[in-house]
Design brief:
The chain has about 300 residues and is an alpha/beta fold. The protein is built from twelve helices and six strands. It has a four-stranded mixed beta sheet. The chain has a two-stranded antiparallel sheet with strand order 1-2. α2 crosses α4, α2 crosses α11 and α5 crosses α8. The protein is globular and about 45 Å long. The N terminus is likely disordered. The protein binds zinc ion.
């Protein structure tokens, strides 16, 4: 969907106005120490983090598009379905064999973003949005981690440990993945129609800052979004043409707007990911350092 959308809650939170503490490390980040978004978005690690999270956001919105335009059924909370199927599209993109490292890195960036958001919520003692249509960030990261681990448990034990999947959950993950793959195959086989493509266009509105221009170049250079879009474009027939628009819109958000047949991705969303990337670089952090149960997870897997 649709507003409220993927990251609406984030857009309502002030990053610069917060005193954020990394309790695990015993450090307080005063507002003066919070990194500036413009500081180093040219760093390759930051770029990878931003692109990975932006790409996941677009795929998540594409699931809302498939629900509204193609008729994918909603048999549960729509936002969970959008997350779930977006993850499965990425996990099954390469079909057989181990998950490519580039895909693992992409998923790890998304997991880390949610973990950092959750850390900020907890440490700033923000109100937890139990009534939100999305699952909590901490739940989204565990669901993503579990499905990824479940795809290839023999090769992804380190991934499971690094992301602190409790053993009680981990033992369910292979079956969860198999069921999710079966569900995805069912949807694809039921709704797929041969099509020549050219129904989904990508538009980059005029950028207003050098930073936005840089984001645009990264996106146009990146193959992931285009390949996922081309795949969906070939596989489904849409009632009307749809458009994915990247533009300046004064908020950190991405959303599907059915009335306009548009997925809108605000450049401000990428600003948010720059902030999170800096947080990860400066304070956070090897995933194994997170103190949410890594010791227990590690011992359980041994
Ligand atoms: Zn959504």
């Amino acid at each position: 969907m649709r507003q409220p959308s993927f990251l609406k809650r984030i857009s309502n939170r002030s990053w610069h106005g917060c005193a954020v503490a990394t309790l695990m490390l015993g450090l307080w980040l005063t507002p003066a120490l919070v990194p500036d978004a413009a500081a180093d978005e040219t760093d390759p690690d930051v770029r990878q983090f931003i692109l990975a999270n932006t790409e996941f956001s677009v795929v998540h919105e594409l699931i809302h598009l498939l629900i509204d335009e193609i008729g994918f059924p909603v048999l549960g909370r729509e936002e969970d379905i959008a997350d779930h199927l977006a993850i499965m599209l990425l996990l099954t993109r390469d079909h057989e064999g181990p998950l490519p490292q580039t895909t693992i890195d992409q998923l790890q960036a998304v997991i880390d973003a949610w973990r950092i958001e959750w850390t900020i919520i907890e440490q700033d003692q923000m109100e937890i949005a139990y009534s939100d249509p999305h699952s909590l960030e901490i739940q989204r990261l565990y669901d993503l981690s579990c499905l990824a681990y479940g795809r290839d448990p023999d090769n992804l034990k380190d991934f499971a440990i690094a992301n602190e999947i409790p053993i009680d959950r981990a033992i369910l993950c292979p079956e969860d993945f198999q069921k999710a793959e079966k569900g995805l195959n069912f949807l694809q086989n039921t709704f797929r129609t041969d099509n020549s493509g050219n129904q989904i266009t990508i538009t980059f509105d005029k950028t207003e800052t050098p930073k936005e221009t840089r984001y645009k170049k990264w996106l146009t250079d990146s193959p992931v979004i285009r390949s996922v879009i081309a795949q969906l474009d070939r596989q489904y027939r849409f009632p009307e043409p749809v458009e994915i628009v990247f533009r300046t819109c004064g908020q950190s958000n991405a959303y599907w707007e059915p009335a306009d047949k548009q997925i809108v991705v605000c450049y401000g969303l990428m600003d948010r990911f720059v902030h999170l990337a800096r947080f990860r670089q400066e304070y956070a952090i090897e995933p194994r350092e997170w103190a949410l149960g890594v010791a227990r997870a590690k011992s359980a897997f041994q």
